[in-house]
TrEMBL record:
<protein>
    <submittedName>
        <fullName>Tripartite tricarboxylate transporter substrate binding protein</fullName>
    </submittedName>
</protein>
<keyword id="KW-0732">Signal</keyword>
<dbReference type="InterPro" id="IPR042100">
    <property type="entry name" value="Bug_dom1"/>
</dbReference>
<dbReference type="Pfam" id="PF03401">
    <property type="entry name" value="TctC"/>
</dbReference>
<feature type="signal peptide">
    <location>
        <begin position="1"/>
        <end position="21"/>
    </location>
</feature>
<dbReference type="InterPro" id="IPR006311">
    <property type="entry name" value="TAT_signal"/>
</dbReference>
<comment type="similarity">
    <text>Belongs to the UPF0065 (bug) family.</text>
</comment>
<dbReference type="InterPro" id="IPR005064">
    <property type="entry name" value="BUG"/>
</dbReference>
Amino acid sequence: MRPDRRRLLAGLLLTPACALANPPAPSAPSAPSAKAAAWPTRPVRVVVPFAPGGGTDIVARALATALGTQLGQPVAVENKPGGATIIGADSVAKADADAHVLLVSGSTTFTVNPALRQRLPYDPARDLLPVARLARAPLVLVVRADAPWKTLPELLAAARAKPGALAHASFGPGSAPQLAAALLALQAGAQFLDVPYKGSAPALTDLLGGQLQFLIDTAASAAPQVRAGTLRALDVLDTRPSAALPDVPTLATLRLPGASFDAWYGLAAPGRLPAAARELLERATQRALSDPAVQAALRQQAMEPAFAGSAALRPLIDEEIARYRMVAARARLVVE
């Protein structure tokens, strides 16, 4: 008998019969853990890092019921305001993988704070996992209805003639109105006087009282006063028109696209959330946001549904952070 046939026969004699009758099955691709695949297993909390009633709160509550239907678990909104959204964001960033807690916030949390603040109690890139963009809320520059400026170029000309004479409201260091005004000033070669306020309501009171010359706020906040005739909208600070104020010019018409500030709202999860749960959550969010009732609720508040998944959102966040860091350095914005 040939040596190679003797070796083969010996191997067969030494192999257990059960192994020959039941050869090993081919290895299957690894499946997600049961824990991740079953997520969520209990009610979900959505943290909003602002007080009730604001734009972020409106977005979260419009989404919550539809998202709960998609996930098969109740979704409740919890407000944790303070610290320029840091308090609420930190509570989500430090949650464990099975905490069943999410974050709905604006670009202040996702791009402005990481760009302007050197010290945060969490790592934005590691500890917060962007899941989806939900909606956009364009910013608009408004003046009193009886103000001498009918257009944004007229206001900018007045600001260039008297640097620092035109006061506007911001909502604290690193807020969207402050950064938007800095972008506009840099692009237009103007200089404004920044006056910090705690919110839209007191700023609007002082604008109407003549203590401020203009205000930058979301179209959702400004549109009712514009329609009532107490405010005049000079420009939407974006290259795209606002659905709430379709007749107001945009920065594209003024050839100032570099001054654009895209105010948006997004959904994030703790960075430890398993990948399978994140993918499930993203699909559920897209379906919830396509609900006509959710879209109608957002549009009623002058917001525009604008879903973008995590693959598209991450590059957007990185680009905005780099851009805002450059603006802060040029405008010498210091946020402690």
